[in-house]
Amino acid sequence: MTTVAEGLLLELLDPANRADPYPTYRRIRERGPLQLPEAHVAVFSTFAECDAVLRHPSSCSDRMKSTLAQRHMAEHDAEPRGATSFLFLDAPDHTRLRGLVSKAFVPKVINALEPDIRTLVDGLLDQASDGPFDAIAGLAYPLPVAVICRLLGVPIEDEPKFRDASALLAQALDPFMAMTGETSELFDQQMAAGRWLADYLRDLIAQRRRRPGDDLMSALIQVEESGVQLTEDEIVATCDLLLIAGHETTVNLIANAILAMLRHPQQWTALGGEPGRVSRVIEETMRYDPPVQLVSRIAGADMTIGDVEVPNGDTMLLLVAAAHRDPGVFDRADEFDPDRGAIRHLGFGKGPHFCLGAPLARLEASVALSAITARFPQAHLAADPVYKPNLTLRGMSTLFVAP
């Protein structure tokens, strides 16, 4: 027999609700925290709860610390996995890795990309025909992967392979992946994409060791602190993170902002006439329709969040997209209004895991959104958008715009 909590989560999983999950988020938020003791899962959906979990010193990002992961390893006599990105690590490993990587990701490196990003955006928009064009395939999707490839020093002819690998591997970030009818064929494709990417990156590392360049890969090889450097496995894991998480989230940010403004034409016109508004549009998009809809944390000790006791080892799912529509925090929470004043959101995380790539995502979105609204002042939706099956990194597969 399905419990109310399980029923709400199944409703959230239903692909039919992907285009507009917000009524389901509202029902979950109004019901309060959901606990599934047998699954060792607690689901939080208010702003205060999600914020508290992200700030709590006992919240862990290492999924291997969960009760279910520990049980699985014990039952299968498995060893913990090797190097992983710092997205799924805790202190002290997270502190060391993030500190080293951040040295190669300083503002000077990001700001130096702006001329290239503007050239890329102008070139992509030049290809938009007089008729309807797909803002995903024509702008939001190719831009971030091209930028990441330039950051890493990947030859332009290899960018399509990176795009394909990114799309496949992004689905593996979804904690509900196993519940969404994933096929063994898709799993095999993801494994193959992961192997190809790792092999490619190792070959690129070897090339950069022999001939360092002016790129992020070379910088990651060279960073050092007190005699400590990144290992090859750690460099590969970091580049995986930049490509997979960084690409898909930026695609969704650009596309979600385009859709929100097209559905609120006064906002499209306002940005086209006043490029300085773009930061407000971006931050309101992060609140109103965030690229990352939920995040997870593991309770590293018995925790109390609000009135809920979370046992050590339980997984906490934070529905940040629901938290961003919390009427107890936001006036007119369901309205898209870049002029609402101070805009709070959890879209880039909090604390030690605050998104290292946030400045790059904001820069890419700023250039893209300012350019498309100025280039096509009379643009309007040409068709209803189509959404991918992804729940965590919820985003569109097509978004046709009539210029």
Automatic annotation (TrEMBL):
- Protein family per UniProt: Belongs to the cytochrome P450 family.
The name of this protein is Cytochrome P450
**Keyword set for this entry?**
Heme, Iron, Metal-binding, Monooxygenase, Oxidoreductase
GO molecular function ontology, one term from the record: heme binding
Output the InterPro entries linked to this UniProt entry.
Cyt_P450, Cyt_P450_B, Cyt_P450_CS, Cyt_P450_sf
- Source taxon at top rank: Bacteria
Q: Name a Pfam family for this protein.
A: p450
Cofactor(s) this protein requires: heme
